[in-house]
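A quick aside before the break. I want you to see a complete sequence-to-structure record at least once, exactly as it would be stored in a machine-readable document. Don't worry about memorizing anything.
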Amino acid sequence: MLTDAEYEILCFVQGEHSRRRIDVLNNFIRKTDPKRTDALIKNLVDGGSLRMDLAQNVRIAPSGVSAMSMYEQAHNEKAEQRAEKARDDLKKAEDTKKQFKHDWRVALVSACVGAVLALVIEHLVDILIYVRVLFH
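That is the input. The structure line, written in C-alpha cells, reads:
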C-alpha cells in the first residue's frame, strides 16, 4: 500500500510521459526533506511502481498505475466510512434528543395521572357520597 507521499510522487510523475528525477525532488522540496523524497523515489523504483533510466528520468510503471488506483479506492472507502460514521453519529444525537423529549413527556403524564389518582383515592368516600346524593 502506498503512503500519501508516495502517492503524491506518482501523481506528479504521471502527469508527463517521464520526468527528470531532479524535477521530482525540486517539486517536493518545500514539503519534505530532499533525502526523504529521494529515498521514496528509490523505494518506488525498487517496488516496481516507477521506472528510472540511466539518464535519471523517471516514469510511472503499469504496477504504479494499479497501485495508485488501489490507493484511491482505499482512500474513497475510508472517506465513505467516515461519512457513514458521521451520519450514524448525527442519527444517534437526533435519537438522543427524541428520547429525552419522550422521557420528559412520559414523566409529565405520569405525574399528572398520579396526582389525579391520588386525589380520587384520597376523596373516594366524598365522591361516592356525592354520586349517591345526586342520583337519589
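Two observations worth writing down. The two ends are 93 Å apart (CA to CA). The chain is about 75% helix and 5% strand. We'll return to this after the break.
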